[in-house]
Write a structure and sequence with these properties.
Low-confidence stretches: 413-423
Shape: elongated
Number of helices: 12
Strand order of the largest sheet: 5-4-3-2-1-10-11-12
Number of strands: 18
Mean pLDDT: 90
Strand content: 15-25%
């Protein structure tokens, strides 16, 4: 990846549904905890890869529904599509590789002869993936018979059964594991192999991820029987694969700590930031910490006191300014003063703030330019903005981090915010 100058410190490759995303967690707390940890401690020197059975259409739909980060790489459609960055640029080399001994028309024709198989929606039928539903008791028999028919046509395919109902037919060279192996080989050829890779999953189509050499693996606590069965048969004594005690993203954080891959305490689990000491200063950590303080203020989870506001003021230059999208400038200190009136106004409500794509550049001996997307969820309504911040450690009077000198925000919906307090936060 061009974003990093050298080898990634850590590359996390995670399934989405019931792994990174917990659909039984309406508050999305485990996901938000992972988000805070990643943006605070890993985004600047590591890679985040989402590996999902979802098609691009359903993947984008999930991103609108859940507070997900923007990955560096997306592997979709059960490992048949690889894209890069927020614009999701496809990997043409991977597509060409999958064309070998593959004919989608023949696959559809032969599979249609099995009444046990029901086509999934059109969005799930991809150039290198044909997907069906099948009853659990009939899956193995159908897979064996269909595989023999396709082999007679000279096709080299792979049939994957997962989730107790999903049956996917792919080129033999496809799959989540092969896509990961392809990426690792590509990074090695570029002289940037990840120092550590952690694969995360919960179902049968994630098993291949754990078969790649030199990769750590975590089966989240809520992993399905099919994956646990695979582990018992194939990797029971493999110390590089664990079955977490925590669900979904919580299990991923648990694995980071278990394998000692880096920091494993999410800023969301830190109650008192004055006691939060980091080994190496990084602007991303300060940004995440600051917005968590604001979220807690609005939710009424911190003490309503002038002492809190004064400590918050201490991280701003007295002459620091906010530049609103309209061009109006406002003193950062006056924004803090305006916070007093909104204490606890989101108490008991679904109000959360998270940052995404935090990037920074050191532009002076003690000055950093930091850019990030800041998202706010309030009563199921979500809005975001691109923020630019100047941070400086020179002359800081705060024990909690650097001083914020300047903030500029551009709201994605172009509407700006209605009140002065909202301009900053």
């Amino acid at each position: 990846m061009d974003r990093l100058n050298g080898s990634p410190r850590l590359m996390i490759v995670s399934d989405l549904d019931h792994t990174m995303v917990d659909h039984h967690d309406p508050e999305n707390l485990s996901l938000l905890k992972f988000n805070a940890l990643w943006e605070a401690d890993y985004r600047h020197d590591s890679l985040l890869v989402f590996s999902t059975g979802r098609s691009p259409t359903l993947y984008k739909q999930l991103r609108k529904e859940k507070p997900m980060l923007t990955p560096d790489i997306t592997i979709m459609s059960v490992g048949t599509e690889i894209t890069y960055g927020d614009s999701m640029v496809p990997d043409d080399g991977w597509e060409q590789f999958l064309n070998q001994k593959w004919d989608k028309n023949i696959v559809v024709e032969e599979a249609s002869k099995f009444p046990e198989l029901t086509f999934q929606s059109d969005t799930e039928q991809r150039p290198h993936k044909v997907s069906f539903y099948v009853e659990k008791g009939k899956a193995q028999e159908v897979m064996k018979a269909l595989s023999e028919r396709l082999k007679k046509h000279g096709l080299d395919v792979k049939i994957i059964y997962s989730g107790g109902m999903d049956l996917d037919i792919l080129p033999q060279g496809a799959g989540k594991g092969q896509a990961l192996a392809y990426l690792l080989k590509k990074f090695k050829a570029e002289g940037k192999p990840p120092k550590n890779t952690l694969a995360c999953g919960d179902s049968g189509n994630d098993a291949e991820l754990f078969s790649i050499p030199d990769v750590h693996g975590v089966m989240v606590a809520n992993a399905m029987e099919e994956l646990l069965h695979w582990h018992a048969e194939n990797a029971k004594n493999n110390p590089h694969i664990i079955h977490a005690t925590e669900r979904c993203a919580g299990g991923i954080i648990e694995a980071i700590g278990h394998f000692k891959l880096g920091p494993s305490v999410s800023p969301r689990d830190v109650k008192d930031f004055s006691e939060c000491k980091v080994e190496h200063f990084h602007p991303g950590h300060e940004v995440v910490k600051f917005y968590l303080c604001y979220e807690r203020w609005r939710r009424g989870e911190v003490e309503n006191s002038q002492h809190f506001l004064q400590n918050l003021k201490a991280v701003f230059y007295p002459s620091g300014i906010l530049v609103h999208p309209s061009g109006v400038e406002c003193s950062l200190h006056s924004c803090i003063d305006a916070m007093g009136s909104c204490y606890g106004d989101k108490q008991g409500k679904q109000f959360r703030i998270w940052t995404d794509r935090v990037s920074c550049a050191q532009i002076g001996s003690d000055i950093w330019l930091v850019k990030f997307d800041k998202w706010e969820l309030s009563d199921e309504k979500r809005q975001g903005c691109l923020s630019t911040v100047l941070l400086s450690t020179k002359g800081s009077t705060s024990s909690e981090g650097p001083i914020w000198m300047h903030v500029h925000q551009t709201w994605s919906d172009g509407s700006g915010l209605k009140d002065q307090t909202g301009w900053l936060f």
